[in-house]
Structure formats: C-alpha cells, structure tokens
C-alpha cells in the first residue's frame, strides 16, 4: 500500500473492495468480438446512492430511468446494470421502453424492486438495443457476480468501448476508528470533454453517509475531477457517474461537520481524480497524458476555465504530439479563454523549463524541451500573477490514430 495524506492507496483494490459489494460481467452479443459487454454491480444491502449526468441536451434513455430509480427510492440503490456496444441514445420511445425493460429484467434477476436498480449504457448512438440478447444476458448476471478481483475485473472489462485499458482505483481511510474503503471503476477514451463526457464511472464505499452529503460531495468532486478532463472537445449523451455507499463499515454517519469529513472527502476526491486521469491518459490514439495547472487567476472558476481552454486546444495537443515547445499556442489559448488576464504578467513552464516570463520570451534549451515533451506525461504550468485562483485540468495529445479510430467507429 502507498500512503497519501490520511488515506492509503490500495493498488489491487476495486469496486468490490468495500464491504457489501459484488460485481461481474459477461458477453451477451452486443459487441462483434467476444469481449464482455454486460455487467452489474450489486450491494447486499440498500445503499445510499447519488449520481451526476451529462449536460448534453440529448440525454440517453438510461439516464431518465436511473434518475427515476434514485428519486423514487429515497436515494437508495441495490444494483446497477450496464451494457457497452450500444448507447441506447436518440432511440425515441422504443429506446426508453428498452431501458425500462433492462431495469425490470435486472430487478427480476436479482429479486429486487425495479426502483432499486439503475441502468447505464455506452456505445454507438442511434441504434436500438437487441433486447433479446440483453434480456438473456441479464439472467446470467447473478451467477457472474463475485466479491473479489475476478468479479471487479469482469465488470471493468464489460464497460469498455474504444478504451485500451480498464480503469480502477481504491483507497482506505479510518473514520471513527473503523476502516472505510472507497473503490471506483470507469470507462472513457473518446468523446471526452468537461461537463461530463463519454464516460461512465462508478464509485462504491462502505462508509455510512447521508444521501444529501453524498450527492453534494459527488457534485463538488466531479467539478474538479471528471469535469476537468478533455480528449476531443465532444460531450456525449450517456455520461453518468454513480456513487453507492453500503454503510457497512460501522462508522457514524458522515456529513459536513463530522471530525473525519475532510479526510473522507479528500480520499473520495483521490479516487475520482485517478479515474479521471486514467480516462485522459487513455484518450483515443493518445501517446501522452497532458496536465495543465493554472495559478494566479482571479478565482478558482476563472482558473478552471483557462485550464480547460488550454487542455482542449487542438493546436496545443498537436504540439505536444509533435514534441514542439510552441508556447505561443499555450498563451494564445490563455488569452481566448474569456477570463481576466493581465497580458504583461504571464509565466509559462513546460515541466521545469521556463519558456515565458512576464509574457516575454525566455531563452531555453530546445533539445531539453524536446526530450521533456517526448515523455509519458507533459505538465504545463501557467502562472498569471493576477489573484489566488488555482485549477488543474487533464487531457492528452492529438494524434493521427485519433482520426483513424473515429473515422471507422461504426465499422
């Protein structure tokens, strides 16, 4: 285990590490390959639940169903069923009926009430779900569940689309003298942009926490993690982040004001941030993770807007791919973010290499910069000297492979 602040990283941990949770996945025929395309997370007790959703106007049918489940069941869930390979988005009344049918089938399979089940889908937009395959697959999910690594791995594989790797994170923390575990799994590789993206993420914990506190924490955390990543500037129709808390750790109920609230919130944020970074690193065709930190903005919100603009710039992303220390693209992005900036006080660094000071060019070693930009992770520091605001955003470089992957997405 590695130690960060007051929580411990569990390298082999997953969404099944918190007490009360099982997961699993299987292949039901939605994907052309034999890879898993249907998965479930199951909690042995009613779990406090919270969710955030895409801001895209065209929201897929599963989002409506999940909202309804959480709202009608006093903020609790027992299971989440997820399919990949088909988004069930922009599919009209039939798509909505299919999402409800998925929920009903899962409720029958797990012997739950319908509003104890959430539904999520990801994949191609505009195609109806082959419900015969989905319904048959759901009947096999209870038998596919497992508490340990195997169940979590099968679930993580089931939610992938163009992703190259599964994305998981887990930490433990002490609350009221009890060990509390937080685990997470996510998918996302393309159609990724702030205000949610083509991503599904799931966070589980065995902490006891009030529904209001969990929803508030989830929203605040999303703003500085999942809403601070971009791959290609597109925001999808299906994005959803669900958190579930079993309460089996034995702590007194967490809420702001609890002595361990700040530590728990930091641990929760760490899980979400590592999942968000993993999505950015696995961007379609990407070869490098790019991190942009902005300091000295007038406010944190202003810093966020500037960081998002820089990380989303196709010219900046292309320069990173080409290992070109073209700081002009960075300062141009800063200047078009629509936020207050003093044009005479901006500093820019590529890692530890200062390339701009007081908005004036600085002599630097081009070969050193070239080697730095060839690295696995590129960090761009922007110092505005204009206030206390700070933010960090994550993205990736823009490569030839991104075009290749998306030019043939449906074929």
TrEMBL record:
The record marks 122-123 as: Involved in the stabilization of negative charge on the oxyanion by the formation of the oxyanion hole. Pathway: Amino-acid biosynthesis; L-arginine biosynthesis; N(2)-acetyl-L-ornithine from L-glutamate: step 1/4; Amino-acid biosynthesis; L-arginine biosynthesis; L-ornithine and N-acetyl-L-glutamate from L-glutamate and N(2)-acetyl-L-ornithine (cyclic): step 1/1. Pfam families: ArgJ. One of its GO terms (molecular function) is L-glutamate N-acetyltransferase activity. Keywords: Acyltransferase, Amino-acid biosynthesis, Arginine biosynthesis, Autocatalytic cleavage, Cytoplasm, Multifunctional enzyme, Transferase. One of its GO terms (cellular component) is cytoplasm. It comes from the Bacteria. CDD domains: OAT. It is found in: Cytoplasm. Its EC number is 2.3.1.35, 2.3.1.1. The record marks 197-198 as: Cleavage. The active site is at 198 (nucleophile). Substrate binds at residues 161, 187, 198, 284, 406, 411. GO terms for biological process: L-arginine biosynthetic process; ornithine biosynthetic process. SUPFAM superfamilies: DmpA/ArgJ-like. It catalyses: N(2)-acetyl-L-ornithine + L-glutamate = N-acetyl-L-glutamate + L-ornithine; L-glutamate + acetyl-CoA = N-acetyl-L-glutamate + CoA + H(+). Its main location: cytoplasm. InterPro entries: Arg_biosynth_ArgJ, ArgJ-like_dom_sf, ArgJ_beta_C. Heterotetramer of two alpha and two beta chains. Belongs to the ArgJ family. Catalyzes two activities which are involved in the cyclic version of arginine biosynthesis: the synthesis of N-acetylglutamate from glutamate and acetyl-CoA as the acetyl donor, and of ornithine by transacetylation between N(2)-acetylornithine and glutamate. HAMAP family: ArgJ (MF_01106). This is Arginine biosynthesis bifunctional protein ArgJ. It comes from Paenibacillus lutimineralis.
